[in-house]
Design goal:
Chain lengths: 188, 209
């Protein structure tokens, strides 16, 4: 041990040209390649990570909380979806498949008639709900409508809203204009 | 300890953990953002979120806002319409219970808007039993909208429902009453007369002795 300590205490003499030789070697290295964001993200690199057990615990707790929040969110969705299911158990079985419904309006003066309702987002430009003139002022379109209770109306010439005179009427105290009701049932 | 830490995997992990937040954002209907101004959109989304938290169907509220936008209504009117519908749906769900379908809640909300009381809704729901009350509610709303007084309309539809009148028969009844009214009949008389005929038909005749 004494011999080792004695050797370690001997001062080391470095050549005066040592620094110059090191710098020459550094300059001789190839230029550093430019990195892009993608290469930074995808190029494997080695990192030394020192994490105390406390941080591991905190990270696990955080992931657990986030997972629980996700589970709660998923549960609420499932619960909402379950409500019609509960009703379906006590009611005739409903199919998700839409049913074909014919809409007819007699409007001899109209240039264009479209059907709007909660089944097409009240969009009068929806291609599947544009009525065709069948002659004699009769306009009609047959379109797929989901099973269930719907409200709808006709839009004549892109401006005049007309409730279906032959369908059940829905009073509307909020917008002030009545709509028509449609109950689509699953066809056997 | 040496670990290989690809940043892509970190990004993927974060995106998976952020899924609930992304799902909430996706739950907000993109059509609303296209058709409503920012202030109206914020108010409507707040009502929709509140309804979702109360386990109410949210699609009717979105549809209500879309309808207002399609009609060219201003933002205040749209927000008020959506808010009023959410209140009516809460009331309807309170009457029909948590097992009510979205269609029944929508139809009951429309009946409430027409002036039908919650007591009448409860009687109708009770009379319907296990059958969905959607069609009776639609007919009731129609009768009130055509001028039949609420007590008369409620009593007529209640009788028809108790008599197990089918939905197609109810639809035919509605058409007949509408036709009578269009030809000048008194709405109450038309409704009670047509209903009397249907109820009498649904009661089996006594066998001849």
């Amino acid at each position: 041990m004494r011999n080792i300590a004695r050797e370690l205490r001997v001062p080391i003499h470095v050549s005066e040209s040592f620094d110059a030789r090191v710098m020459d070697a550094v300059r001789a290295l190839p230029p550093h390649r430019r990195t892009t964001l993608w290469s930074r993200l995808t190029t494997p690199r080695t990192r030394t990570v020192r994490v105390s057990p406390l941080w591991w615990g905190l990270a696990a707790a955080g992931i657990g909380v986030l997972a629980a929040l996700g589970a709660i969110d998923a549960y609420s969705d499932v619960n909402q979806a379950a409500q019609p299911l509960v009703a379906a158990l006590s009611a005739p079985q409903k199919a998700e498949r839409p049913e074909r419904v014919q809409f007819v309006l007699v409007a001899p003066e109209a240039k264009k008639v479209a059907v709007v309702g909660d089944f097409n987002g009240w969009d009068s430009r929806h291609a599947q709900y544009q009525a065709q003139h069948r002659g004699g002022g009769v306009w009609s379109v047959t379109a797929a409508v989901p099973v269930g209770h719907h409200r709808y109306s006709f839009v004549v010439d892109d401006s005049v809203w007309v409730a279906d005179p032959y369908a059940p009427r829905v009073v509307d105290s909020d917008y002030g204009v009545a709509n028509s009701a449609l109950v689509v049932e699953h066809q056997q | 300890m040496t670990r290989y830490v690809p940043l892509v995997s970190i990004a993927l992990t974060l995106s998976v953990l952020a899924t609930p937040a992304l799902r909430v954002a996706a739950a907000q209907d993109a059509r609303l953002a296209e058709r409503l101004d920012k202030v109206t959109l914020g108010a409507v989304n707040a009502i929709v979120d509140s309804a979702r938290a109360a386990k109410l169907p949210t699609a009717p509220l979105v549809d209500r806002a879309l309808e207002g936008a399609a009609r060219g209504s201003d933002g205040d009117r749209i927000v008020n319409a959506v808010h009023q519908l959410s209140l009516r749906m809460r009331a309807a769900r309170g009457v029909f219970g948590p097992s009510a379908s979205a269609d029944e809640i929508k139809a009951a909300a429309a009946a409430l808007d027409a002036g039908v009381g919650q007591r009448d809704l409860a009687r109708l729901h009770s009379a319907a039993g296990r059958r969905p009350a959607t069609m009776p509610l639609a007919v009731l709303t129609d009768l009130v909208g055509r001028g039949v007084p609420v007590p008369t309309a409620a009593e007529v539809v209640l009788q028809l429902t108790r008599a197990r009148t089918s939905d197609s028969e109810l639809a035919m009844f509605q058409r007949n009453v509408r036709g009578d009214i269009d030809r000048g009949a008194d709405p109450s008389v038309a409704a009670t007369t047509r209903a009397r005929g249907l109820v009498a038909r649904s009661v089996p005749a006594k066998p001849l002795e």
